[in-house]
Automatic annotation (TrEMBL):
Cellular location(s): Endomembrane system
Topological category with respect to the lipid bilayer: Multi-pass membrane protein
PANTHER family: BYPASS OF STOP CODON PROTEIN 6
GO terms for cellular component: endomembrane system; membrane
GO function term, MF aspect, one: transmembrane transporter activity
Domain Major facilitator superfamily (MFS) profile: 73-416
Keywords, alphabetical: Membrane, Transmembrane, Transmembrane helix, Transport
Higher taxonomy: Eukaryota, Fungi, Dikarya, Ascomycota, Pezizomycotina
InterPro entries to which the protein is assigned, alphabetical: MFS, MFS_dom, MFS_trans_sf, MFS_Transporter
Taxonomic source organism: Lepraria neglecta
Name of the protein this chain belongs to: Major facilitator superfamily (MFS) profile domain-containing protein
Region (Disordered): 1-53
Protein family (similarity comment): Belongs to the major facilitator superfamily.
Length: 416
């Protein structure tokens, strides 16, 4: 008969607590707690937020260089966001010349800001569905294709109503990829830093776009629509790079990695809308994007009309704003990751409000130009911080739908 010691050794060892998978009946997924608690959701928006994918057993988080293809994929997404920035910032630089060309009032000219919002709304409704059908590869192809077609139409100098309508298609192309790349990078390791670089790329494109557009119109005496020749070229490169980098990211792979717990994969947008986090982030993005577009989109007109600046110098203030936003996103993103999203956003907002008072109360061209650049520096990291908070508080399978919807609501801020 074996000894008691031998019998004990033959018994199966008790698994470590960390290896025990939480059952759906006996535990609540970590991502769902903010929605089911009675406390304020803002209490969770701290540095102690659950990490993306928390509650998913034995699921390794991707890194910027692991798997190795991620290096090329990140490069493709950064390049795409450079083009997003060039697209968005060009409106503000070109608005005075579009209005003069078509002899329009400010109210009618402002429709160029409203039209992309309609495209973002369509993208929010279909983004998750397109991901599940075609994967990130399909989205990387469809998004740039929509924008290339829109830019080709605009470059022909069509009637103004056609410009407004076709910008909606460009907005849909941007909206698809905006949700896709934010959701993908938002679940990676060091997401604050990576999202800071991603949105810093947006700021880089927004920095060079007014410079290029203003130079073409004021120095070379070219029509405002000729700027879109450049956009056709760079977005074609984006189409090739993005499709190649995400070629193996198929719809089947996306469905396998983002399965719904209840098995319903067709109602992700509807499910995302039931989460309070989605609506809180939407309101945050609504006010943020509205502020960003108001400053970056109308600063050239303001500096020319109110501060009596020269056209080229006024155009450079837009470049200064977007440059400040770029530097802020790249540099302060690392600070945000250290001190937490809630505290960081409070600090940035306080600094931006102080600078806005200086911009308003000191009616001098130089002071206004410096103040607007510093405002861009401090508001820049707020959008990436909001995306990180959303990815930490929501289940991974809802990231694309929730961020897509929030981005669409943010587009409403630009329209307003």
């Amino acid at each position: 008969m074996p000894s008691s010691i031998t019998m004990i050794e033959m018994l199966p060892s008790t698994p470590e607590p960390a290896a025990l998978a939480p059952s759906k009946e006996s535990s609540i997924p970590l991502e769902e707690k903010p929605d089911e608690s009675d406390g304020s959701i803002l209490e969770h928006a701290t540095s102690g937020l659950p990490e993306p994918g928390a509650g998913r057993v034995l699921e390794a988080r991707e890194r910027w260089n692991k798997p190795r293809i991620n290096t090329w994929r990140l490069a493709a997404t950064f390049f795409a966001f450079i083009n997003f920035g060039m697209n968005d910032a060009s409106y503000g630089a070109l608005v005075p010349y579009i209005g003069a060309d078509y002899k329009l009032s400010y109210l009618v000219t402002s429709l160029v800001f409203l039209s992309p919002f309609s495209g973002y709304t369509v993208a929010a409704l279909f983004s998750d569905r397109l991901h599940r059908l075609f994967g990130r590869r399909g989205v990387a192809f469809i998004g740039p294709t929509c924008r290339i077609f829109a830019y080709i139409v605009i470059s022909t100098h069509p009637p103004y109503p056609a410009v407004v309508i076709i910008l909606g298609l460009a907005g849909m192309g941007c909206g698809l990829l905006d949700a896709a790349w934010n959701a993908w990078i938002g679940t990676m390791d060091q997401q604050n830093q990576l999202l800071g670089l991603l949105h810093g790329s947006y700021g880089l494109g927004a920095t060079i776009s007014p410079l290029i557009a203003t130079t073409m119109v004021t120095k070379e005496n070219l029509g405002w629509w000729t700027f879109y020749y450049i956009m056709i070229g760079v977005v074609t490169l984006e189409l090739i790079a993005g499709t190649a980098a995400f070629w193996r990211a198929t719809g089947e792979q996306y469905r396998d990695n983002n399965r719904a717990d209840g098995g319903d994969e067709k109602g992700m947008t509807r499910l995302a809308l039931k989460k309070r986090v989605t609506w809180i982030c939407s309101i945050f993005f609504l006010t943020y994007v509205g502020t960003e577009v108001s400053l970056g989109g109308w600063i050239v007109t303001f500096m020319m009309r109110i501060r009596h600046g020269q056209p080229f110098a006024s155009g450079m203030t837009a470049t200064g704003f977007w440059l400040g936003l770029t530097v802020g996103r790249v540099s302060l993103g690392f600070l945000t990751g250290r001190i937490g999203e809630r505290l960081a956003v409070c600090i940035y907002l306080f600094c931006a409000l102080g600078l806005e008072l200086i911009f308003w109360l000191v009616p001098q061209f130089f002071v206004s130009a410096v103040a607007i650049a510093l405002i861009g520096f401090f508001i820049g990291p707020m959008f990436p911080a909001g995306v990180v908070a959303a990815t930490k508080l929501l289940p991974q399978e809802l990231h694309v739908a929730a961020i897509g919807f929030s981005a669409a609501v943010g587009g409403a801020g630009a329209a307003v």
